Amino acid sequence: MMERKIAKLVLGVVFILTTSFSVHAVPWDDLTSKQLEDKLVSKFNEGEYSKKGADSCLACHKKSALVMSIFDGVHGQMNNHSSPMAGLQCEACHGPQGTHNKGGKEPMISFGSNGKLSAAAKNTVCQGCHNDSKQMAWHNGAHNLSEIACSDCHVIHAATDPVLDQLTTNEACTSCHSKEKADMNKRSSHPLKWNQMTCIDCHSPHGSMNESSLSQPSINETCYSCHAEKRGPFLWEHAPVTENCINCHNPHGSVNENLMSSRAPQLCQQCHAPNGHASRLVSELGEDVFGSGQGCMNCHSQIHGSNHPAGSMLQR
Ligand code: HEC
Ligand code: HEC
Ligand code: HEC
Ligand code: HEC
Ligand code: HEC
Ligand code: HEC
Ligand code: HEC
Ligand code: HEC
Ligand code: HEC
Ligand code: HEC
Question: What is the pLDDT of residues 33-51, one digit of tens each?
Fold first, then answer.
């Protein structure tokens, strides 16, 4: 069943963009992507699985500490009947051995991010077992559409998968997302740099139906899930707040206090310029209450909304 599924998807992949060579050379590196996928498909059709399972593979591969560490993780457990180790073992993921045991020249499915196999082909292996509701949004998610493989985030041959450990999730994500890495180390940020919070407090790594793969239906709902006091309702609302917190804040970090995307008064003057008292700032910056310290917030302190009967100017 699973073999047939894999064969179908592998065949379905027409354009293969990856042409780089892996750092760790394998004997099938001289095949083109097309030849490699064709070869793997025909191996699946022949279905020549080894009779000795993992023992056969380990005859040659047991010297690699990385290979052996599969037995420390969930996929190496024999006692879980749905685990690969209780079934086809290594070949559940790497495909049937065929004549690979004759010196290792015939290709196996390998998951290196710099190999020639498409992400879609690699992912079919995992999806053969992992196709529950938690994976529903994967298909239309940004990671899938950008040809990111499951194995680009998940490490299988390990006791603990770094992307699943709160202390290393952020590192795993920012290995690709360098802009967010820079942001989270700025003066003001969510406590990401100490790993008290992680990217997946706000984002769903497998995609979601929401913008930017957020786990909540909107940006504001995401923020309210922790900053409930900002939800209101307020007697006097401040329109940009109910509209979108990102009007003023950068969720990943900022050089300005309070994750502000820019500083008051400039921040406010994007929308409240140039008429009225709000425009006095420009020429008198730093010289009066308008420009000193918090500037506008010296008087308009209830910037997120006010419940005071006389709070229409967000002053109390
Ligand atoms: C006769 C020895 C031999 C046997 C048996 C063998 N292999 Fe290999 N395998 C090799 C050699 C040689 C290579 C290429 C060089 C390397 O990566 O070490 C290789 C490469 C691989 C690779 C690619 C490694 C990479 O760097 O991407 C995978 C995956 C693999 N083998 C899996 C298996 C599995 C699964 C089995 C059992 C079904 C198996 N091998 C059985 C010798 C063997
Ligand atoms: C659940 C799927 C799965 C199973 C089962 C599995 N592997 Fe792997 N294997 C992977 C993935 C994914 C990688 C890429 C590295 C990683 O994620 O740890 C990999 C990497 C490898 C490599 C390349 C290592 C290198 O030096 O770069 C070899 C060789 C290998 N596996 C052999 C085996 C053998 C032998 C077994 C059985 C004892 C096995 N694998 C079982 C998924 C699997
Ligand atoms: C033969 C079935 C099978 C295949 C193939 C398979 N897995 Fe799994 N996977 C399991 C089982 C069983 C578990 C244990 C949890 C469970 O029972 O659902 C698991 C657990 C996981 C977990 C959670 C780990 C944890 O520590 O909680 C991740 C992540 C995962 N698999 C990723 C992958 C990826 C990535 C691939 C492809 C390289 C893959 N799996 C291939 C059966 C499989
Ligand atoms: C962008 C990185 C990333 C990619 C790509 C990715 N995952 Fe995950 N995966 C995660 C993270 C982070 C978690 C932990 C989620 C949590 O704790 O809410 C996770 C959790 C899991 C789990 C265990 C819990 C669960 O939600 O079921 C499984 C199984 C899993 N992933 C399988 C897959 C498969 C299969 C693919 C490819 C189709 C994949 N993942 C692609 C990052 C990723
Ligand atoms: C192997 C590289 C890689 C890793 C690791 C990775 N990503 Fe991504 N991610 C991408 C690419 C490529 C895109 C699409 C282009 C872009 O928006 O930068 C993307 C897009 C996103 C987006 C935008 C989604 C959208 O719908 O616009 C979010 C959010 C995201 N990733 C979060 C994460 C999180 C959280 C993790 C860790 C669990 C993670 N990524 C790990 C490569 C990666
Ligand atoms: C406090 C919640 C929160 C946390 C934590 C968070 N993000 Fe985001 N992220 C958001 C919101 C909200 C957006 C949408 C921003 C927008 O539309 O401008 C977003 C957007 C993104 C995007 C898309 C950016 C773009 O330009 O389209 C990526 C990629 C991303 N986040 C990655 C990450 C990574 C990686 C981490 C962990 C280091 C992370 N995020 C942590 C809330 C968060
Ligand atoms: C998972 C919980 C969580 C979510 C979701 C969340 N925050 Fe936070 N936020 C925190 C924590 C924790 C702090 C740090 C509080 C502290 O240090 O006292 C914080 C602090 C802040 C601060 C003050 C930063 C500083 O430098 O003092 C701002 C502004 C903020 N969050 C805005 C947002 C916005 C906007 C969103 C939605 C995009 C959001 N938060 C989503 C947990 C969250
Ligand atoms: C019009 C600009 C603006 C918008 C939109 C905005 N904020 Fe703020 N936010 C501020 C300012 C300015 C501060 C600094 C507070 C001060 O100096 O009194 C701040 C501070 C904060 C703080 C830290 C201090 C505190 O009050 O707890 C949090 C948390 C916060 N905002 C969350 C949010 C959330 C959640 C949203 C969306 C519902 C949001 N903000 C929308 C301007 C804004
Ligand atoms: C993204 C645009 C935007 C930003 C940025 C913004 N505001 Fe507003 N603000 C509005 C809108 C729209 C209203 C509602 C105006 C109305 O109802 O006529 C409003 C209303 C107000 C009011 C109530 C007065 C009134 O006319 O109802 C005050 C006071 C105010 N803003 C101060 C500030 C301050 C101080 C900042 C900077 C921290 C700021 N605003 C940033 C768009 C913005
Ligand atoms: C010294 C206190 C003080 C400071 C500082 C201050 N305001 Fe005001 N603001 C007021 C008062 C009082 C009103 C009500 C005036 C009225 O009813 O005519 C007001 C009214 C407003 C209004 C609604 C009427 C209008 O003029 O459009 C906006 C918008 C506003 N302020 C924005 C700002 C911005 C932006 C800043 C910073 C650049 C700022 N204010 C700084 C006291 C202040």
Answer: 999 999 999 999 999 999 9
61's CB contacts (< 8 A; 6+ apart) are: 67
Check if the beta carbon of residue 17 is closer than 8 Å to that of residue 34: no
pLDDT digits (tens, 9 = 90+) for 102-128: 999 999 999 988 889 999 999 999 999
Q: In 3D, which of 49, 21, 45, 50 has the Cα closest to residue 33?
A: 21
pTM check: above 0.85? yes
Pocket (CB within 6 angstroms of ligand 9): 238-240, 247-248, 264, 267-268, 270-272, 296, 300, 303, 313-314
Domain ranges for the chain: 2-152, 163-219, 231-298
List residues near ligand 2 (CB under 6 A): 24, 54, 57-58, 61, 64, 66-67, 70, 75, 84, 89-90, 92-94, 110-111, 151, 155-157
